[in-house]
């Protein structure tokens, strides 16, 4: 049976859904626990599709059905979990498929940037305690902020996973008990096709017990869109996988440090990087965070990471992103939260809202009920 607890940071209550058992059972527990939030996610995205593409629910559901066979082939266990989520939430399967394929549905219809996000990996000689940290600011549509959830998943045969995600999604940013951590940066090229939902690929990567298998999950996926997968390992490793429909490039951390934003760092002949044209601030955020962290090389800790993610250079389109009154409809993006994961101690630290404004919750994988500490990590606060 699932267990439901919650924590509050900066006035926002975030539920933690602990589920276990078969894929179907995990999904049912998830769906029942936060049915209202799952329906909230669906309504928010249906409204986006209506505004951006003039498509109603029936049209979107028809498109969403096409993803089922592809998910079944790539990760049948996760498809069973998706079916369980729908059952538990008393929603049609197409509703949960729509949520999990929301990026592909948006970009199959029109070139449109998804999650913003600036991410990092630091480990070994770069950190004060030698721990491995992976994290990012989650920059996205403010309508999704009330639907954030943490999943604590113990699915039969898989490593235990902690993931911060949107209600209804099978995974997003997270870590597992074997010390693999994952964050993501959306990117956008001129190459798009029908393909596997990126959130299903993220979940598959988090079920890996060794880093090469997590990399393989991305490498062997039939990708619809471009995305960067930031993967860290507890033993002191970090890579960025710039994956797009036509291939994948890998960037290794240097001196225990790696940062990324929403543009390609490696060029490919014949590919246009559309994302940086839509949001040119990506070209600043990546370098800015890298400079801030390299200046503290060997001393990096939670406080320095929180400070870096709170940086306001190029405000409001900064690492810590705030509403931009000049943004066009469909580009209303702000920092909904900050995730910092300590892979060494298996802790997910989360601040709801921009990290410049508030406290983090420390969610330990081996926590006891109610054992979630809240604190302000920023040294510059």
Account of the 3D structure:
The chain has 381 residues and is α+β, with helices and mostly antiparallel strands. It has a domain at 112-375: Penicillin V Acylase, Chain A (4-Layer Sandwich), CATH 3.60.60. The protein is built from twelve helices and 16 strands. The protein has helices at 23-33, 35-53, 57-64, 68-74, 76-88, 93-100, 102-109, 198-206, 211-219, 275-278, 282-294, 302-309, and strands spanning 3-9, 12-21, 118-122, 133-140, 148-155, 161-166, 173-176, 180-186, 227-233, 237-244, 247-252, 257-260, 334-342, 347-352, 360-364, 373-375. The strands form two sheets. A nine-stranded mixed sheet has the order 1-2-5-6-7-8-9-10-11. Strands 12-3-4-13-14-15-16 form a seven-stranded antiparallel sheet, with helices on one face. The model has no long low-confidence stretch (mean pLDDT 94).
Total count of helical runs of at least 4 residues: 12
Straight-line N-to-C gap? 41 Å
CATH class of the domain at 112-375 equals Alpha Beta
Mean pLDDT value = 94
